[in-house]
């Protein structure tokens, strides 16, 4: 029986290392497309600007009430509330419900666009 | 039984498995037919548009003698129907960059088409109370641009005579109302 040839072991070892590095590089390429897409899609899907905008307008209206604060005990007049709800449901498919008690205290905001279901309860001290 | 070269056999099997798994990973890599970075530019465009609208809808003065002391430039432009000054200011907010002479500080080329949506309380079902009118645009859209939509809810003070659309029909002119500014943005 011929003696086993144990030359060139370094080359074999380095070949293994190269093969394993290629394996990891392939894994990274495999993930990269989805990472770029899912992160930007999740930013697009979450309606951050909408919610901030509605929240701001609610507080703005509540702080400077302009329309019939006595109707339904609401600070924000029913006309403006219908404006907001109709515009958002027709144009953006969003269901909004805002409650501002009179006198101005705890604002409750519900926002649902089918993907994001957001509720906020702002406790005023 | 010949038991030579067992180490080579093991090495051969290992190499084969590594190659097969690598080939599998490469072949199973998801192919997205719309390039993945389209979503990233969409996101940037949407952020820019929302920021520009938010900037124009931020009060820059506080006048306690007014019925709403913190009315904004955007709200005022809709109330007075100043579509030209809206177009000018919105276009520069979208496209201007800081700096002066570097190529990277040249203006961007974002175009817009703005529409104002409002609720006409005199229209009862089955009519749709949500109506719109065209506000301003910087370029004609061919329909082939990769465009995105940004919106802004704006509270507009009562509009006695200035905005012909919002004052007609009559019930609308007597109240403060919320309108939705809808802007289509694209690069072109």
What does this structure look like?
The complex is a heterodimer of chains A (125) and B (188). With 125 residues, chain A is of the alpha+beta class. In chain A, 54% of the residues lie in helices and 14% in strands. In chain A, a hairpin with a 4-residue loop joins strand 2 and strand 3. Chain A folds into two domains: 1-45; 48-122. Mean pLDDT of chain A is 80; it is low at 67-73. Chain B is α+β, with helices and mostly antiparallel strands. Chain B has one domain. Helices cover 36% and strands 20% of the residues of chain B. Chain B contains five helices and four strands. Chain B has a four-stranded antiparallel β-sheet. The longest helix of chain B is centred in the N-terminal third of the chain and has 23 residues, at 6-28. Chain B is elongated and about 105 Å long. Chain B starts with 5 loop residues before the first helix and ends with a strand. Mean pLDDT of chain B is 81; it is low at 169-173. The chains are: A alpha+beta (125), B alpha+beta (188). Chains A and B meet through helix 1, helix 2 and helix 3 of A and helix 1, helix 2, strand 1, strand 3 and strand 4 of B.
